[in-house]
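SAMPLE LOG
Freezer: B-3
Tube label: C17
Construct: single chain, 308 aa
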Amino acid sequence: METAFETIQRTSTISFPGLFGSFSINPPASFSLFGRSIYFYGVIIALGFLLGITYCAKRSARFGIREDDLYDLVLWLIPLSILGARLYFVLFKLDYYIANPGEILAIWNGGLAIYGGVIAGVIVMILVCRHKKIPWQAMLDLIVYGLLIGQILGRWGNFMNREAFGAQTDIFCRMQLTATDGSFICVHPTFLYESLWNLVGLIGLVIWEKKGGRRYDGQAALGYFFWYGLGRTWIEGLRTDSLYIGQTNIRVSQLLSAVLCLLSLTLLIVNARRKHPPEELYVNRVAAAAVQIAEGENEEKKEDTQHE
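STRUCTURE (predicted):
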């Protein structure tokens, strides 16, 4: 199985015979610019980051977050999240990278683990928010929207690299990978499953938040972790490139996803039974503070007028 997959990766023609018949595509993994190879994998991930940040910046006021504070966080978040995503992947394939140290930084060939990026990102976010005296739960509520956008687009980088797909199948939405010699296999397009799953999650969160569903800081983040964990638990079980715990058959991301899903669901249920006064929501506290400042300035103006 592994030999067959390795043989047709990178240069294989891609088609979805159950959906689009004989239509096929052979996207290049990279393109040349000024004499240098630029990999679509990196371009797509960068585009996902940019769109995610842009969306968060436009929505930041609804969470009580200033755009400047968001951008300050992003300056630390992007490089360290990428580092965390790569470190997570390398650690679970340490024997290979010890033997091939020159490939440790070759992220353009794939090998960014989303959970490593999320873990690093959350740590960085908490530290930055503490420094700025911003509730990290409120910031996380905002950031998960950008994270979903990044994941939706980022999985298409896997498509360009012919990676992150599942086991062989004859399901209607199967993805067929055809080698130059005509041999082929049909697999689960797990990159597509995850991209669509996250799209549904993003739409659901946006609608829910716009209708005033967010009652406490951290609620949107819990919703994201529950939804993503639920989908990833299922999707990871279909993949052929999972990272495993030691010599066991336990998939690291599948186990982590299941734990994340159950923990988030538990916290959502527990918090649903608690009272959450609207004035405790950070965005409402910021608004109340702004009103007090404005009233104080008006009082000062009145006093100055009276003295005149």
